[in-house]
Amino acid sequence: MNENKNIVILGAGESGVGAAYLAQQQGYDVFVSDFGAIADKYKQQLKDWDIRFEEKQHTEAEILKAVEVIKSPGIPEKAPIVKKLREKGIPVISEIEFAGRYTNAKIIGITGSNGKTTTTSLTYFILKNAGLNVGLAGNIGNSFAYQVATEKFDTYVLELSSFMLDDMYKFKVDIAVLLNITPDHLDRYEYKMENYAASKFRITRNQTANDVFIYCADDEESLKGMEGKSFNAQLLPFSIQKEITPGAYLQGEKLIIQTNQQPFEMNIKELALQGKHNIYNSMASGIVARVLDLRNETIRESMAQFKNIEHRLEFVAKISGISFINDSKATNVNSTWYALESMTSEVVLILGGVDKGNDYNMLRDLVKRKVKAIVCLGKDNKRIHEAFEDDVEVIVNTASAQEAATVAYHLAAKGDTVLLSPACASFDLFKNYEDRGRQFKDAVKEL
């Protein structure tokens, strides 16, 4: 028996610090190492728990002693320390994989390039309203590992990014949801769409005939990824283009979910979340609720009352008849496409940031039809200019949220919408997309 109880956590953010606490609770000798600076809040927690840590460096001698390493999702495979661990054959897993060993709760896992956070939040909201003892974790809320260590939830709703799925091996999701697959984070996947898609499908690993896999039957990349694969779980697709049973579909303006039980029906005008993409999100959450045999009335009430998350098509204010919308969470082109698709007025679009190899072509048609001006918010806006210079008359560069909001306000007219939906990561000018969204909201309130 291996008596080595050394476990190393790489990265001291929400997931890393939560994993450290759970590992300590399970009797491991824990060491946390972060190549960057650790936020004061997390540093204080590690000190309070008497967990050893280092920041701004990786001490190899210490890290390579580990029996296992829990890696934060943001650390890429090409990081030198990860390569060394792989060479030595030391297992590298995710916080989700580790925490899953210590809970018997039912797991609902939700992934996809777009709509994950909204669908995860809506699913959690429905389950909580139905009286379930449910936790919310993954890419959202408090770390899964920390909740496993401190709570006794019967069910978890987890938002799972491709980075989290990459380091999961034995973890099993009881109800898996794949919303869609569109190009995102391709820099982490050798710029190959099939690698990224394969990562998303890891959510179905280890599923049995007692489990469920929910997916979008209208999403080409999802269907392509399913070709030639066999699935043990029950398949429940959803579509707004065709009638599907069992599964979810539209009949006129009626959303219908038909699983093994009585059908669920709801007029799409009554949904709290409007727009085509949100019909998909509501279908996915609704199927989860029906699989769990929740009452139709509870599902209907929750879907009508749900309030969307911060930074996702969030209404900020109306000033001089101009609506300001914060969609800072749109860090890829597809998210921005969804945002534009749901707009019903002329738009001044705030775009830009760290470009992750974006293909802006898919936005061109919507930009031509709906966008009167583009305000760039980023250090390098060359590709945005190149993509849209023939489609809009005005493209302006700005270097702060305040400047972007002010310029957009002056370019907009009464009845227009100023939409912050950047299609890019935020790290050139901001700490993260939340910081970008909050600075934008503050700037709007000062207009």
From TrEMBL:
Catalytic activity: UDP-N-acetyl-alpha-D-muramoyl-L-alanine + D-glutamate + ATP = UDP-N-acetyl-alpha-D-muramoyl-L-alanyl-D-glutamate + ADP + phosphate + H(+)
Source organism (scientific name): Mucilaginibacter auburnensis
Gene: murD
NCBIfam families reported in the protein's UniProt record: murD
The protein's role, per its UniProt record: Cell wall formation. Catalyzes the addition of glutamate to the nucleotide precursor UDP-N-acetylmuramoyl-L-alanine (UMA).
Record keywords, A-Z: ATP-binding, Cell cycle, Cell division, Cell shape, Cell wall biogenesis/degradation, Cytoplasm, Ligase, Nucleotide-binding, Peptidoglycan synthesis
Subcellular locations according to the entry: Cytoplasm
Family under the similarity heading: Belongs to the MurCDEF family.
One GO-annotated biological process of the protein: peptidoglycan biosynthetic process
Protein name according to UniProt: UDP-N-acetylmuramoylalanine--D-glutamate ligase
EC number: 6.3.2.9
Mur ligase central domain mapped to chain residues: 110-288
InterPro entries: Mur-like_cat_sf (IPR036565), Mur_ligase_C (IPR004101), Mur_ligase_C_dom_sf (IPR036615), Mur_ligase_cen (IPR013221), MurD (IPR005762)
Matches recorded under HAMAP family: MurD
Pathway membership: Cell wall biogenesis; peptidoglycan biosynthesis
Binding positions (ATP): 112-118
Listed Gene3D superfamilies: Mur ligase, C-terminal domain (3.90.190.20), Mur-like, catalytic domain (3.40.1190.10), NAD(P)-binding Rossmann-like Domain (3.40.50.720)
Enzyme class, first EC level, given as a word: ligase
Cited Pfam families: Mur_ligase_C (PF02875), Mur_ligase_M (PF08245), MurD-like_N (PF21799)
